Amino acid sequence: MLRLTRIIVLAIFGAALLPAVTGYDAWLRYSPVANRGLPATVVRLGDAPTLRSAQAELIRGVKALFGRTLRASAALVNEDSILLGTVRAVNQALPNIALPGNLAPDGFALETVRRHGHKILLVVAQNERGVLYGAFDLLRRLSLGGGFPPSPEVSNPAAPVRWINQWDNLDGSIERGYAGRSIFFSDQHVSADLTRAGDYARLLASVGINGCTVNNVNASPRMLAPDFLPQIARIADAFRPWGVQLSIAVDFSSPQTLGGLNTFDPLDPHVAKWWRDKADEIYRLIPDFGGFVLKADSEGRVGPSRYGRTHADAANVLAAAVRSHGGIAMYRAFVYDHHMDWRNLKNDRARAAYDNFHPLDGKFAANVMLQIKYGPIDFQAREPVSPLFAGLRHTNEAIELQITQEYTGQQRHLCYLVPMWKEALDFNTGVGGENASVKNIASGRRYNRPLGGFVGVANVGLDMNWLGNYLALANLYGFGRLAWNPNLSAREITDEWTRQTFGSDPRVVSTINSLELASWRVYEGYTGPLGMGTLTDILHGHYGPGIESAERNGWGQWFRADEHGLGMDRTTATGTGYIGQYPPAVAQRYESLTTCPDDLLLFMHHVPYRYRLHSGATLVQYVYDSHYTAAEEAQSFADRWRRLRGLVDEDRYQAVLTQLEYQAGHAVVWREAICAWFLKMSGIPDNKGRVGHDPARVEAESMQLRGYQVMTVTPAETASGGKAIVCKGTGDCTAAFQFRGTAGWYTLDIFYYDEISGDAEFQLRVGDQTVSHWQADAALVSKVPNGDTATRQRITGIALRPGDRVQVIGTPDHGDEAALDYVRLEPSAAP
Ligand code: GCW
Questions:
Q1: Which atom of ligand 1 is closest in space to residue 542's alpha carbon?
Q2: Against a cut of 0.85, is the pTM above it?
Q3: Is residue 392 over pLDDT 80?
């Protein structure tokens, strides 16, 4: 609600009223730093839109950083200057200067040369887009307190394809988007105002991203409609100054549904012609169009199987249509059967990508790329790398990473994914040779492929800070940096991002860096550790705990728990044989319990609850411990952030604090759900006595209720004791109890449910005094009390005396029934 008000206020009053700091400029804030003695003029050799952007961006950045306005020139001047140009243009202008010979497309060099006694700081690149990247690189150095490098430096991208996918629908919604509506579409049209699209392209260009697919891979055929393409062309126009090539996801049945043909068989010549004509039509409108992205035969999408054709047939017909224009066909390897029989212990969704695509290696055209999710399931908090990376030699590959935090806390939880991506990228696939890492395969280096790349599903939205969470923007930044150079370390990337985004105060930098870097493992620790899957509700929001939703259905995200143990047996000896899809070196490590890493244990093996991990703990005790430790760490995030008060501007300080406090509460919800479930399933108690035993808790259903009714929550483990209370009418309801502890200061944690339907209100009263009042107005993904909506309100510094009457008063609103689970009272030090 708050967000919405803000957007409306901004829309009405325009940019002039922007608060001093929003996330809008993300890491491109250019906060003032000490001047590094730059010359006064910036010369641009040429007229290309990206060159113009490079010059304008340098002027903008330097003005913000140093408070001076560089003079813009379109021709060489006789004074010290910054010179922007391609190798060709610079060679012409300065014929006697030797330029670096090893520049790849989009790569750039920074080099100082002399001309008539003047110093020229060269930003030179193989193509114009590279010059823009060089300008951003220079600005990054300046923002971080550095200067123009003293000796020549060359920077080439790891791979030619560095793309973003947006899962935007034409009605303006975004599949798995957590930051508001689409910046591209509304109401079946391209939005009239595309300022945000241009500003997004600027952010992308600043980290070297050169392509963006603007619509959902679950694509609408309307994308290709003749009246729609000119609208799409407007987005391409907004991208072009930033060198971001537009591409679109297509519906494979388009030749029939849109084109009126009686088939969409990829081998039918009429179909092939339809795609060719369509591509020609697109290129007339968008000469730098990037190509097509296709999700076929997956999750209900139609595909070549309809006609008994292969994925190669499908990919190649699209590729042929765009080939003469220099476009590519990105074919998603996320193909699996979501109606699989769970009773068959040999069935395994993880096998699908390899089983489907490995036999087709070598059958794809030269301008096809297979876009492969990093893991074999679906962006879980922990997965092994997909065996398909090693399973292809004669096919162009791209690795698909997910910036939008679908399964990793949906930007409400801090979960910084760069460390996870680094693990995947650095993983040695076991194919042999020096370049056997996933990053070298995906970038095309291992097998000298013509194409290779990185695709990040970002799903930014109209929210002022793009991803709806200040700290989550590090994922977008980090994706771009890794796509450019996957050899950067997570620490380097984080440090760059933090300092550009929050300034260089060492306390701020070290706190934010360490929160970011710890966050993925913490998230994993309170959700589903040991490779068991995230344990979220996979049938609905993919957000809160929903453990059994993964079992006994066709989706194949099974972890196969029973009263004896859990885990998917994927061994070749007794299991699904998935492990055999890896090259022998890797397969052997996973196949044996002795060498399989604990982090992936349950992904690879089925083991009993009392199985001992390498760490020495039993499986079930590890699950308990991991959840308690990680939930405490999540709480420590909020506590550590609090120490930055006054060091970070108030707006961002408060917004991040609110988010981290919410996360700490939800981490407890996760802990409680998973631990209760494991206790019930295994019957093995926690050896530290915590699980199922919390004397500090007063259950709502045991309070004196006025108006409130007791309900059974599903799944049971998402409410303490399986029950909550709801207020069904329109008036207030009250739940009260008498405090019986010792007199002193207390922290009260109120666990309630914040349903999406309305904005219920709560009051906490002690005696006759209202000590806290809050609204349940977060847009959480469910309408009922469950793991998605369970929320904690922490109220500190309350003095209680024996006999005090403590009351929670709930006011329902539009179907949000002010549901309450329990109140926890924890003695605290005097505030
Ligand atoms: O992760 C799953 C998502 C779907 C998505 C699909 C995919 C766009 O839950 O929403 O569809 O992956 O990647 O195609």
A1: 9
A2: yes
A3: yes
